[in-house]
Structures are given as C-alpha cells and as structure tokens.
Amino acid sequence: MHQIFFWGFALLAVFSALMVITRRNVVHSALFLISTFFWVAAIYILLEAELLAAIQILVYAGAIMVLIVFTILLIHVEETKIINPWQRQRPIAILLGVFLLGEIFLILSRALFPESIAGTALQQVAQEGNTEAVGKLLYTKYLFPFEVASILLLAAMIGAIVMAKREIEK
Amino acid sequence: MINLSLLTPEIIVLITALIVLILDLLPWRGRKVLLATVGVLGTVGALLITMGQWDLREEAFYGMVAIDNFSVYFKALFLIICTLTILLSINYITRGGIDLGEYYSLVLLATFGYMFMASGTDLITIFLALEILSLAVYILAGFMRHSPKSNESAFKYFLLGAFSSAFLLYGIANIYGVVGNTNLKDIAQYLSQEAALKNPLFLAGMGLLLVGFGFKVAIVPFHMWTPDVYEGSPTTVTAFMAVGTKAASFAAFLRVFFYTLEPLKGQWVPVLWLLAAVTIIFGNTVAIYQKNIKRMLAYSAIAHAGYILVAMVAGNDLGSSSILYYLLVYSLMNLGAFGVVIIVEKKEEENLTISDYRGLAYKHPMLSAAMSLFLLSLAGIPPTGGFVGKFYIFSAAVSGGYVGLAIIGVLGSAIALYYYLRIIVYMYMYDPEKEFLDGPVPFFSAAALVITAIGTILLGITPARILELAHYSISYLGH
Questions:
Q1: Scanning B198, B346, B374, B459, which has its CA 20 to 30 A from the CA of B328?
Q2: Using alpha carbons only, how large is chain B's radius of gyration in Å?
Q3: Mutate to test the interface with B, among A158, A166, A169 (most CBs of B within 10 A)
Q4: How many whole angstroms from its chain centre is CA B424?
Q5: Assigned fold of A1-79
Q6: pLDDT tens-digit map of A14-54
Q7: Is this model's pTM higher than 0.95 or not?
Q8: In chain B, where are the structural domains located?
Q9: Of B469, B336, A49, whose CA–CA distance to A57 is shortest?
Q10: Distance (Å, whole) CA B173 – CA B355
Q11: CA distance A2 to chain B (A)
Q12: Over 60: is that where the pLDDT of B323 sits?
C-alpha cells in the first residue's frame, strides 16, 4: 500500500518537475512548480515527517511561489517567451545530464544510506512526536545555526533595502 | 556548553555593523567619516580580543564553533582585511557616489561571515557563514547601481554563487545521509572505520564539497565568474572579495579537508594536483592578454589560488603552514595593489586599463614605488613576502615528492613575471600624458598603503616568526 502511494506521488512529482522546465508559458511553469511542491510534501507525509510537509507547503508552495508570481508580474513575460532556453548547449547538456544521471544510479546501486540512522531518528520521533523533536533540537544542539540564520536574514534585508533605495542626490 | 563569551570578537563585529546602520540616520554631512571610524574602531577592538584568544582551545555552542589557534589566526587576518578595506573605501565610495551607510555595514557583516568560516566546526555552521558572507558580497558587488557593469557583476555572482552553494549543500546532505551527523568531529570519527573509506555515497559527497569550495576560492574550472565579477564590482569590493572571500573559503576548505577528510587523502590529493596544475597554467596564461587591470588582477588571483592548492597537495608540515603564511602575504600585497588601482581610478571607470598607468612614476613617485613593490611581491621577487611564500610552498612540494607540480608552479610564476612587470614598465618607461589624480592622495588610502607595504616587506625580511605562528595554528587543527 505504502509502496503504491510512494510511486504514485513520486511519479507525479517528477512529471510536474518536467513540465516546469519544458513549458514555454512562464505562468504554466509556475503552476506546475506548485504541484511539484505538493507532491513532495505528500511524500514527506508518507515518511511520517508531518512538520516537514507543513513547512514545505507553507514556505515553498506559499511564500516562495508568491515571490515567483510577483517576479512574473514585474518582468514582461511576452518578451521572454521568444528566448530559446537551450540555444547551442543542447547536445552537450544532454550528454552531461545523462552522464550525471548514470553516475548517480551507479552510486546508488553500490550503496544505500544506512538504515540505522533513520531508525534512531524514527524512534525519537515516535516517543515525543515530530514537531517537538525538531523544536527541542533547534533550541539545544542547533541553537547556534538557528540564531545565526537571523543574521543571514538581516544581511538579506539590508541588501534588499539598498537595492530598492533611490539614487543618492548629488 | 554555550560559552557565549568566547564569541566576543564576532559579537563586536556584528554590533558595530548595527551601530553603523543606526548612525547613518544622523542628519550630519560629515557622518560618513564617522561611520568608517566606528567601523575601524570596532574591527580593531575585535582584533585585540581575538589575539587574546591565542592558545585557548575551547568549543562553543555544543561543538558548532571552535576557538583554536587555527581560527584565531584566520579571524585576525579577516579583521585586518576588513580594517584595510574600510580605510581604502572612505574616499572611493564618496567619489563614486555610493557612500551609503549600508556599505560599511555589509562589509562588517561579510567579515562576520568570514570569521565563522574559520571557526565553524559543523558543516551547517560553515554553510550558514558562507551564505552570510556571500549575500553581503553579492550586494556590495552591485553597489554602483547606475553602472550596468556593476549590475551584471552582482547578478552573475549571485546566480553562480547560488549554484555553487547548491553543490556544497548537496555534498553536506550526502555526508549527513551516510554519517547521520554534520559535526566535523563526528564525521572524522566515522572515517576512522576501515569500511567507511570506501562508501561511494560519502565519496560523492566529498566530491560535491570540493566543487562547492572550488567555486568560492575560484580555481579552474570553477573560475568562470571571477573576471567579470571582479571587473564590474566597485574596486574596493573587488579587493575585499579577492582577498577576504578567498581566504575565508580556504579556511573552511582546510578545516574540512585537512582535518575531517584527512583519512581520504588518497582520494582528494590527485584531484587537487590536477586542479592546481590547470589553475596555475590557465590563470597565468590568460592574465597576459588582459588590458583591464582589474581583470588582470582577477586572473592573477586565480593563479594564486593554484599556488595555495600546491601547498595543500604537498600536505606536509611546511606545506600546511605555508598555506596560512601565503594567505597573509597574499592578502597584504593584493590589497596594496588594488589600493593603488583604487586611488588612481576615476569616476566613470576611467584609468582602469593597463596603458593608463603610462608615466605614473613621474607624477606620483611614491604611489608608483608602492605599486612596484606589490607587483614584485605578487610575482615572487625577493626581498618581498611573496617570494618567501612561494619559496616555502614550492620547497614543501619538492620535499613532499611532488616535483612535477613544483616545476609547473615555478614556470607559472615565470609567466606571471611578464604581466606584472609590464605595469612597472608602463609606469617608469613612458612619459606621462595626463594628470592622474584630481587632488593629493587621500589620507586614509595612503595609510592603508603604508600598512600593506610595510607588511609585505617585513614578511619578506623576517618570515620566521609568522611562519612559526602559522605552523602553530595549523598543527592544532582539531585537537
């Protein structure tokens, strides 16, 4: 049962992702991107990572999509339609892509991520629940990255203000 | 243990960045100099406290950050770079019409990121530090918003930087998947098992990390962004990133590869060998054809990353200490050379081609003398620091058994001599055709040049003490 759902969601996710990069109309691409996010969120739920699924939908399907749609609004979509995204790179790109894919398959066929790691994490989650476990870690072991991320956001905010500010009067 | 007090230098830099932002709101015309002064005071204060942390072997925030001699050495270097950059910027950004208070704030925030690149002992810390410094520098690169070149530079840097961050992150994810932890100590522990060394997923992760760091330190073939970004950015920012970002990325690169991934040396040394050879040959050859001095210095910066890779390949005692030594020399001489470019450059990107330096010596003898010193040091001529640094690196390569690589390095330096000397020829062998500066050399820029020049010469005459410090710093990595 689990397997059927996984393959269903996975295939839909890959299909939507393919549609994102092949559509000529940017708005269609954006819509397929949302659907990709949702299918991936569904896989997270299958993995019993409900917090991750919720974040995926809130942040990616919500916030980031709004950004993308705004960008599409601001740039002139009609003009960008003419540009062929492949140009002359196509043969090389396909070759390298196939090569990379083969490499990934080769590696995956030789080794898998050890299950013991996932096992211990799952036990912890089963005891206290997903959200609680993540929250506890964020405020103990990962307190430093959690706090420093705020400085990252501050730098981004200053940057956005600088970029949007009007020219200095001479 | 959290041990917040160990992070005092970083916190000072952060608070200075915020104070600068607030002070910029003062309704006072002369406030820009005040901002720079506050910035310099903050970094110098942080520098003093950092120096007091020497020989302190502590960890903070549950092993996320280490205060060891390695991080102290690099943090001191970054703070010096930050101070010199601010000194060089004061006059330049006013002339260029980009004297927003946010400029200094972003330079300080980038320095904050640099510092955690050196002291981060967890892949997550290193990644976050890298993102902080990258974001700040992307914006600084595009600070001249009226210039299309500056916009192009910021955009290219942003796209390729984000692309390279993805490589790094994918590598981190792979390693996490195998080890179950992102802490460098735990990864090292995992690698102490025999079977772990052959795990293909881990090796793939390591390869991706190498690509990510390769982008940031600008080694061939991950250098594509460098010339355009260095050319388009405001020159002070170019100097800052050519020196600071490179040194910071090398700091994290060294900690991850020299300490954690040391058992896998057999895997990554041959790759670095090849990258070093290609980087040195390519960087030096292409630099010959450059007409723009910023582009030339960009290719020279690529070549210098190649020399540092040679020392990484050698990997012995002398090799590892010479990396730290060379990064210090490289920072000083490069900041100096860019400093002269900054002083000579006029608005609207005038005076940036190499032939513009025609006859500079007859109008500004001191400036030309300083430029010659920095260029000779970059080329590796005694008695400058650049010579000693290269000497250490190549002798480390020879004693490590990498004679071929040492020969490539020496040949590369010989090619480099041509394009460095060409500028000196232009400065001294031609008659001046025009006025270079609109006024006297600005005081703060001159101060920065004096500091870098003295440093370059001192490192060339008495290298032993600093080499000893470098040796002491890197031999305690991870202990």
A1: B346
A2: 21
A3: A158
A4: 24
A5: Four Helix Bundle (Hemerythrin (Met), subunit A) (1.20.120)
A6: 999 999 988 878 888 888 999 999 999 999 998 888 888 99
A7: no
A8: 4-474
A9: A49
A10: 49
A11: 22
A12: yes
